[in-house]
Amino acid sequence: MKVMYLTAEGFDTPNPNNQLAMTMIDDFLNAGIEVYMVASHRKGINPDIPKVLQNRKGFSYDIVDRPVVDKTNFIKRYLEEMTYAFKAMNQWKKHKKDVDIVLLQSSPTILFSITLLKLLLRKPIVYSVFDVFPGSAYDIGVIKIKLFIKF
Q1: Residue 7 in contact with residue 105, Cβ under 8 Å?
Q2: How far apart are CA 22 and CA 48, in angstroms?
Q3: pLDDT, position 110
Q4: Distance between CA 121 and CA 56 in Å, rounded?
Q5: Could you write out the DSSP letters of every residue in the chain?
Q6: How far apart are CA 15 and CA 46, in angstroms?
Q7: How far, CA to CA in Å, does 25 sit from each of 20, 22, 31, 53, 133?
Q8: Distance between first and last Cα of the chain
Q9: What angle do the packed helices 74-92 and 110-120 form, to 10 degrees?
Q10: 117: burial class by Cβ within 10 Å (0-12, 13-18, 19+)?
Q11: Can you say whether residue 44 is alpha, beta or left, with left for phi > 0 and alpha for psi between -120 and 50 degrees?
Q12: In b/e form, how buried is each residue of 52-87, taking b as 16+ CB within 10 angstroms?
């Protein structure tokens, strides 16, 4: 079995999802499940691939460069994530016949990514929600319009 792991984040930029993603991919590989990952590169603070995943049998990946966008600029951030979805799609389309299932990590533009996957890939999709507190973006001022949270 081969899993396509799609994420809008990358290991190069510290974020709370990195440890969960790294552990999950490591567990898949240890169980004999192959993983193809598409991730982003923004800040280059850390390596694009953590040491525990480097040179692992059954692990392949593509890294897509992304600009750093201020998290408080919701519209610009949303548009950039849509652009990233297309760039990522250009990578995963090359592997669509090789994978059995898609694991899609949560992101603000998730509906857009799911639509692309459903139209072009036609594989089962598992949606992984790492951000369990969507209202916190409003509470800390990242999203200023409460209607977006309700949507």
Answers
A1: yes
A2: 11
A3: 75
A4: 25
A5: -EEEEE-SS-TTS--TTHHHHHHHHHHHHHTT-EEEEEEEESS-SS-SS-TTTTT-TTEEEEEEE-----TT-HHHHHHHHHHHHHHHHHHHGGGTTT-SEEEEE--TTHHHHHHHHHHHT-S-EEEE-----TTHHHHTTSS--HHHHH-
A6: 11
A7: 9, 5, 10, 8, 23
A8: 35
A9: 20
A10: buried
A11: left
A12: ebeeeeebebebbebeeeeeeebeebeebbeebbee
Please tell me the distance from the alpha carbon of residue 32 to that of residue 58, in angstroms, as a whole number: 8
Q: Tell me the one-letter amino acid at 82.
A: M
**This prediction's pTM:** 0.81
| Amino acid making up residue 137 | A
Residue 90 corresponds to which tokens in the numbers above?
């250009």
Residue at token pair 């193809």: 36
In angstroms, the Cα distances linking 68 to 71, 72, 79, 112 are 9, 12, 13, 20
For residue 119, the model assigns a pLDDT of 83
Dist. CA 121–CA 119, nearest whole Å: 6
Which regions in the chain score pLDDT beneath 50?
132
What pLDDT is recorded for position 109? 73
